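Form P-L/3: holo structure prediction, ligand iron/sulfur cluster.
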Amino acid sequence: MSNLDNLFNKFEQAASSPAGQLAAYKAQGKKAIGVLPYYAPEELVYAAGMVPFGMWGSNKKTISRAKEYCATFYCTIAQLAVEMLLDGTMDGLSGVITPTICDTLRPMSQNIRISMSDKMPVIFLAHPQNRFDENGLRFTVSQYTNIRKRLEEIAGHPITDDDIREAIKVYNACHVEQRRFVKLAGEHPEAVSAVKRSAVLKAGWFTLKDEYTKMLKELNDELEALPKVAWPGTKVVVSGIIFDNPVLLQIFDDYQIAIVADDVAHESRTFKTDIPDDADPMMALARQFANRDHDVLLYDPASAKNRRAEYVAQLVKDSGADGLVLFMQQFCDPEEMEYPYLKKELDAQNIPHIKLGIDQQMRDFGQARTALQAFADVLALS
Ligand code: SF4
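OUTPUT (holo model):
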């Protein structure tokens, strides 16, 4: 087996077995903290010497116990995160951070507080809407300071400013390799299938960032050394919250649809913004949140200018993609409300796109297969 295959296997193993990752860290005597979407400062978890553990629902579970707590119109990502907390899958966690950025996550944070408070600490996080000015930054710092205190209680020791500075270095170094991987995967679709690309990025949610960065750098170095090969298929940018189901991703590979860039919350939206330099590391984390941009989930005072849609259209052009595939999570209000504006801009710039509704309980992707095949055919002809 080549080193490249060996590395892909390691990422695939981590991505497909979060429970195995959690058990392995626990066996090393480490504590792990569940981190729900979006934009929790997981650097603080790392700085506390604990393992941040991403919780973005599951493609393998069915909503059952969560029905007792969640409204039926919550998206499946939220409901399945609760399901995993209730059914014992996440019993190895020592706590969970619940951000509240959308209208589903806000009430869900309270569902989790009520359902889990006997089992583990539940750490509430409210990001400010106005995140840019001094008041917004101070508010973010105060929220992060509360998280820091709660994590110190769980870890049983203080988190020093130097611990946070070190975590910031580790995370920024990881962002560099993650962005490098996205670019290399787009340049080498013959070596990085859609299934493999997803596994590599997903593994980062269940692996300590220093270990993950080391593996990712090794993979990137291998990919960089590959000769350039002409791609016989089509190229797309993918947008949405999450698309990590291997069955769905396999359709891309079956029809030679290469993913050359993404605007996905679970992927590039997370690591496209570095943590800036600031003498105060807590303020540095707050400034990173303030600097996040072109995101359906974040307030944009200049939204009337349709900046986000322009950004996505530009991403398609810059990456050399032939079009855009938008995966719309069922019951996701922020993405649904933004779609008409995105469509308007894509149409204005003659960028072909397709919108596919998905959720994490879907097991039959027959419709998506037909639609993606037809889209690939249209792109090939245009
Ligand atoms: S998918 Fe949409 S509704 Fe669900 S948690 Fe994410 S932003 Fe909120």
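COMMENT: The mean pLDDT is 96.
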